[in-house]
Amino acid sequence: MEAGVGLALQSRAAGFGSDRRRSALYGGEGWPRIGSLRVAEPAAAAKAALRARGSKPVAPLRAKKSSGGHETLYNSVDEALLLKRKSEEVLFYLNGRCIYLVGMMGSGKSTVGKIMSEVLGYSFFDSDKLVEQAVGMPSVAQIFKVHSEAFFRDNESSVLGDLSSMRRLVVATGGGAVIRPVNWKYMKKGLSVWLDVPLDALARRIAKVGTASRPLLDQPSGDPYTMAFSKLSMLAEQRGDAYANADVRVSLEEIASKQGHDDVSKLTPTDIAIESFHKIENFVIEHTVNDPVGDSQAGSHAERIQTL
């Protein structure tokens, strides 16, 4: 509690008080549309604000152009059905708890998180975007440049603290969110999922799109892939133990191996979302809460699933 209060005070000193955080979280003055956010036991004013907001749909599953020029779902019908079934099974066990996605920059947290939130009926938030909105700057890179990484981290912790008081959210966190213990205190109120992507694949992905939006990787010169791989390797060494604090680890190498692929780039975001749901379900079953009624209900639900 003291650590959280300390961070809040630091954030207010930096011009990011609780009112401003709340304004950013709900989308600006008057709390306009940012999605159907569900808050645990909200006060009357919060309920009214939530009713006043419209619904902002999450981006649908990826699509591609067929040879005939029309769009078809990138994922097969069977894959979409499996995704929906796994989400329905996991939804029971979650009981409204939030899901926090952690992992290195470029690991696909936002893309996978949007898919997961859509099928769960949860709201989706990107913590980096919320910090940008609250600080009033267009990018994390600019926040680092104008202020500092420490300033960004203070605000990031404040945002995660606000989100942790809510329910039924999928949150894509920044790559460095795991380095502060207080952030884990917030994320442990829900379930955390580590998207573990091979560094080579991350470096190729980041080099392809550029590093300008990633201040910890942006370099003035040099081969983009080599520079990205070198910096990612250093960050992975610094953060590896922190990522391992997550409740669930989703290894893209393991998913690719099970599907017979030798390259994780062949995986779709839906593949990763399905595996995430599978790992979450296993984790919750293995770590049942100390609630005899809840355990009994979870056990009965598991038996029903096994008979399907």
Task: Explain what the structure shows.
- There is one protein chain.
- This protein is α/β, with parallel strands linked by helices and 308 residues long.
- It has helices spanning 2-13, 18-26, 44-52, 77-94, 109-120, 127-135, 140-146, 149-163, 181-187, 199-209, 224-243, 252-258, 269-286, 292-306, and strands at 63-65, 71-73, 99-102, 123-126, 169-172, 191-196, 248-251.
- The strands form two sheets. The protein has a five-stranded parallel β-sheet with strand order 4-5-3-6-7. Strands 1-2 form a two-stranded antiparallel ribbon.
- Strand 1 (63-65) and strand 2 form a beta hairpin.
Question: In a nutshell, what does this entry contain?
Answer:
This protein has 308 residues and is an alpha/beta fold.
Give keywords.
308 residues, alpha/beta, five-stranded parallel β-sheet, two-stranded antiparallel sheet, 14 helices, globular, disordered N terminus, disordered C terminus
